[in-house]
């Protein structure tokens, strides 16, 4: 139910606030009406308790938990009670800019008003993707179909797709532009099947001028949804309508995708968003800082801070933005200049996490490959030994190679409880004592992942 609470909070506080403040929290448990919530640093604990204590309490209650109050704590520190949730000392950051939905008749996903071409910083790693997106946003005749954008998490795929939609809404109000995630596509499809409205569904999707489907890897392995997607896709291409697709990897690397869909996806323009380089990260930080300077006027920043961040936080842009958001909030709270010392104090957890580059997703992928099981089985519910064992190996390696806490690892293994993760890790530790093959496997995987 923590998952549900988090979903509700995401809706209430907006995406930026959510990633910066709520996502790093863990619900440890509820005892005697007291919910223990863990924050990664002292600063975050104080900030969250002050600014988000009330909504969190509300959502915990709404989810059916009998919670009287919340105790926010930090690992290895004794909990400080946040008996009554005090008024913010400084106003909480404004919720993310209003989200608007495009064409009212179309069941598209809401667009984030901040994801425009103006706010997108262009550098070597993303210049092709940006140029292609710009071209589509002109709304002229289709030159490549589909435009397939792919790249790792947080590199700007969704940002670019929203930017295309925004631009088209202004330039070409006559066009019917539909943006949604592959998950939503599936949801609508299943709903239409259930309500026997499949003709309406087909008619609606075939009536758009530009269709954008985000995170298409999601429909891999979902057979009837793939089938429907394929038909929609063909119908639109035949009518000369533009399609834009994003995924977290290249078409050829999406497992369980029908061959005919794969080849369809490859026949347009396939562009890769590369991992950010130092210059791009610095550019993004500078742009963001400009807007924060307006919001937190009077705050000073020492030389070298942005350079340090661009150098150290290389994972993804979302984390980079989150770090800056937290930094400004912290500095304004304590009324200090943003210096490198302050950075160390306020971003300990992020800096520590970025020391090690291995992610749980990579671990899951490598382990699945090694044991020849599906990546989806790593997070799925199957209890079969041949699947459960590799999954436990992945849990074990996640604990060893990342700085994630057990509840965080649990979340990435399909929302499992932290005790399940602990059990899995213990199991592997026990087995390794006598099972040499297992020990070898684990060592090999560790070396592969750390290289
Ligand atoms: P993806 O969909 O690829 O996972 P997003 O588009 O959601 O990534 O981007 C994550 C965050 O990083 C968003 O807040 C987005 O605005 C920001 N971002 C990513 N790339 C850039 C960029 N080149 N310039 C400005 N902001 C960026
Ligand atoms: Mg995205």
TrEMBL record:
<keyword id="KW-0547">Nucleotide-binding</keyword>
<dbReference type="InterPro" id="IPR024633">
    <property type="entry name" value="DnaA_N_dom"/>
</dbReference>
<dbReference type="InterPro" id="IPR027417">
    <property type="entry name" value="P-loop_NTPase"/>
</dbReference>
<comment type="function">
    <text>Plays an essential role in the initiation and regulation of chromosomal replication. ATP-DnaA binds to the origin of replication (oriC) to initiate formation of the DNA replication initiation complex once per cell cycle. Binds the DnaA box (a 9 base pair repeat at the origin) and separates the double-stranded (ds)DNA. Forms a right-handed helical filament on oriC DNA; dsDNA binds to the exterior of the filament while single-stranded (ss)DNA is stabiized in the filament's interior.</text>
</comment>
<dbReference type="InterPro" id="IPR013159">
    <property type="entry name" value="DnaA_C"/>
</dbReference>
<dbReference type="InterPro" id="IPR018312">
    <property type="entry name" value="Chromosome_initiator_DnaA_CS"/>
</dbReference>
<dbReference type="GO" id="GO:0003688">
    <property type="term" value="F:DNA replication origin binding"/>
</dbReference>
<comment type="similarity">
    <text>Belongs to the DnaA family.</text>
</comment>
<dbReference type="GO" id="GO:0005737">
    <property type="term" value="C:cytoplasm"/>
</dbReference>
<keyword id="KW-0235">DNA replication</keyword>
<dbReference type="GO" id="GO:0005524">
    <property type="term" value="F:ATP binding"/>
</dbReference>
<dbReference type="InterPro" id="IPR001957">
    <property type="entry name" value="Chromosome_initiator_DnaA"/>
</dbReference>
<keyword id="KW-0238">DNA-binding</keyword>
<dbReference type="InterPro" id="IPR013317">
    <property type="entry name" value="DnaA_dom"/>
</dbReference>
<comment type="subunit">
    <text>Oligomerizes as a right-handed, spiral filament on DNA at oriC.</text>
</comment>
<dbReference type="GO" id="GO:0006270">
    <property type="term" value="P:DNA replication initiation"/>
</dbReference>
<dbReference type="GO" id="GO:0006275">
    <property type="term" value="P:regulation of DNA replication"/>
</dbReference>
<feature type="domain" description="AAA+ ATPase">
    <location>
        <begin position="143"/>
        <end position="273"/>
    </location>
</feature>
<feature type="region of interest" description="Domain IV, binds dsDNA">
    <location>
        <begin position="332"/>
        <end position="451"/>
    </location>
</feature>
<feature type="binding site">
    <location>
        <position position="157"/>
    </location>
    <ligand>
        <name>ATP</name>
    </ligand>
</feature>
<keyword id="KW-0067">ATP-binding</keyword>
<dbReference type="Pfam" id="PF08299">
    <property type="entry name" value="Bac_DnaA_C"/>
</dbReference>
<feature type="region of interest" description="Domain I, interacts with DnaA modulators">
    <location>
        <begin position="1"/>
        <end position="90"/>
    </location>
</feature>
<dbReference type="GO" id="GO:0008289">
    <property type="term" value="F:lipid binding"/>
</dbReference>
<feature type="binding site">
    <location>
        <position position="156"/>
    </location>
    <ligand>
        <name>ATP</name>
    </ligand>
</feature>
<dbReference type="GO" id="GO:0005886">
    <property type="term" value="C:plasma membrane"/>
</dbReference>
<dbReference type="InterPro" id="IPR020591">
    <property type="entry name" value="Chromosome_initiator_DnaA-like"/>
</dbReference>
<dbReference type="InterPro" id="IPR010921">
    <property type="entry name" value="Trp_repressor/repl_initiator"/>
</dbReference>
<dbReference type="Pfam" id="PF11638">
    <property type="entry name" value="DnaA_N"/>
</dbReference>
<protein>
    <recommendedName>
        <fullName>Chromosomal replication initiator protein DnaA</fullName>
    </recommendedName>
</protein>
<dbReference type="Pfam" id="PF00308">
    <property type="entry name" value="Bac_DnaA"/>
</dbReference>
<feature type="domain" description="Chromosomal replication initiator DnaA C-terminal">
    <location>
        <begin position="359"/>
        <end position="428"/>
    </location>
</feature>
<dbReference type="InterPro" id="IPR003593">
    <property type="entry name" value="AAA+_ATPase"/>
</dbReference>
<keyword id="KW-0446">Lipid-binding</keyword>
<feature type="binding site">
    <location>
        <position position="158"/>
    </location>
    <ligand>
        <name>ATP</name>
    </ligand>
</feature>
<feature type="binding site">
    <location>
        <position position="154"/>
    </location>
    <ligand>
        <name>ATP</name>
    </ligand>
</feature>
<dbReference type="InterPro" id="IPR038454">
    <property type="entry name" value="DnaA_N_sf"/>
</dbReference>
<keyword id="KW-0963">Cytoplasm</keyword>
